[in-house]
Amino acid sequence: MTDDAEGPDERSPDGGVSSDDTFEPTYGITVPPASDSSVPGWVIRAIILFWLGFLAVAVAGHLWSQLQGLTLLLLISLFLALAIEPGVNRLARRGWRRGSATASIMLGFLLLTAVFVGAIGTLVGTQLVDLLNNSEDYITDSVDRVNDLFGTELDAQEIVDEFNDPDGRVQQFIDAQQDNAIELSLQALNGLLAFFSILLFTYYLVADGPRFRRSICSRLRPDRQRQVLAAWELAINKTGGYLYSRLLLALLSAFFHWIVFQAAAIQAPIPLALWVGLVSQFLPVVGTYIAGVLPVLITFLDSPVKAAIVLGFIIVYQQVENYFFAPRITARTMELHPAVAFGSALAGFSLLGAAGAVLALPAAAMLQAIIGGWGQRHEVIESQLTEMRLPGRPPRTGDST
Questions:
Q1: Angle of helix 41-93 relative to helix 209-217, nearest 10 degrees?
Q2: Which of 29, 81, 183, 362 could join 205 via S-S bond, C-beta 3.0 to 4.6 A?
Q3: 97 phi and psi, to 5 degrees?
Q4: Residue 400, pLDDT above cutoff 50
Q5: Diameter of the chain measured on Cα atoms
Q6: Would you say residue 352 has pLDDT above 90?
Q7: Strand (E) or helix (H) holding 214
């Protein structure tokens, strides 16, 4: 046989196939030689990026949980700063220093808040003292009314004895609340600290507003500066419009409720009317119901009939406000669709509680105005789906979206 003739397979001394050759079985499948297995580089990079991202998210979540309170204080301060800056600008144009103008407006706000809180606190405290001093008379009168209305046979004296029993459920509840006095005091101190922190942040945001805006614009191109200043001016106008519309609606609500409370000879009609007006306007969605609880409860202790009158008027006035007053006032100050307002209030409440519900409305108005200014507008074709007809008026044509 010649050298280049096919011979038997060369095998290793231990009888295996040499590592330099491939083994070709008779069925024609070639098995590649064994090689060192290694993880691709992109897999290692993906694993590193995954863990870095996981750590970044964990750190961000921890920082948010720790700084959520501070973030809320800054948002409230920013809202107040945007709301009072138009007044400060007017005073500054008349020759006032911005610091003095800001301090004057905030001092006026503090005085009004102190008067309102003092009036409501005095009213509630007086009613509580009267209720405790004349608890037996109130219990007897209430039981007699319930028996007359529903035909029951409740014994007023048994309820009075249960109320005065030192081992009864009422006294146990009162004792349990006394144990929480320290916790309530600490919460009050925290609230007072947060209140003064908000005032401090608000003062510096307004007093140093021009300097702050110059510092931001100095790092931007001229075209970007115009966009930032336009957005800032829009935020001031929308926030100021929101505050103006809420205050005007609150004054209208307080005025009409004061007339009804005065006519019904309800105790402290002016503080109760102010309470209903302010709370119903500055607490979206549920503000009306919260505002109506206090006057109805206080009036019910005096006369259930008067309480029914108060409750009925609050419900009727809310409908009148929704259909007549609010659309006309908000159309001139803060154009915000009711569905958008309702959804934004719910979203703000879910994120930041009651303060988020209040801040959500001007924020939604700003976003709606900014988004509405983007893009190009076109003429709308006439169709039954786009026709806007008001009762007694011809159809509106040529409206754009």
A1: 140
A2: 81
A3: -75, 145
A4: no
A5: 131
A6: no
A7: helix 209-217
Reported as a single tens digit per residue, the pLDDT across 241-272 is 778 888 888 999 999 999 999 888 887 888 88
Buried/exposed 203-230: b ≥16 CB within 10 Å, e otherwise? bebbbebeeeeeeebeeeeeeebeeeee
**Considering only CA atoms, which of 341, 339, 368 is closest in space to residue 357?**
341
C-alpha span between 395 and 238 (Å, rounded): 31
Q: Collapse the DSSP code of 141 into the 3-class scheme (helix H, G, I; strand E, B; otherwise coil) and give the result.
A: helix
Q: Tell me, what's the pLDDT at 389?
A: 60
CB atoms within 10 A of CB 109: 15
Distances (CA, A) of 141 to 130, 138, 146, 299, 356: 15, 5, 9, 14, 42
Higher pLDDT, 390 or 152: 152
Q: CB-based contacts of 261: which residues, under 8 Å, 6+ apart?
A: 269, 272, 273, 295, 310
Question: CA dist 10 to 2, 18, 245, 384, Å?
Answer: 16, 7, 97, 90
Separation of alpha carbons 60 and 159, rounded Å = 56
Count of H-run helices and E-run strands, the chain: 13, 0
Cβ 44 vs Cβ 38: under 8 Å: no
Residue with tokens 């609500």: 253
Contact 106, 202 (CB under 8 A): yes
Residue 388 pairs with which residues in a beta bridge?
A: 396
pLDDT digits over 169-217, tens only?
767 777 776 667 677 778 888 888 888 899 999 999 999 989 989 999 9
- The arithmetic mean of pLDDT across residues 321-327, rounded, is 80
SS3 state of residue 6: coil
Phi-psi label, residue 50: left if phi above 0, alpha if psi -120 to 50, beta otherwise: alpha
Give the span between the Cα atoms of 348 and 341, in whole angstroms. Answer: 10
Cα separation, 13 vs 234, in Å, equals 88
Range with lowest mean pLDDT among 14-18, 44-48, 345-349, 384-388: 14-18
Query: Closest Cα to residue 300, out of 288, 312, 308, 292?
Result: 308
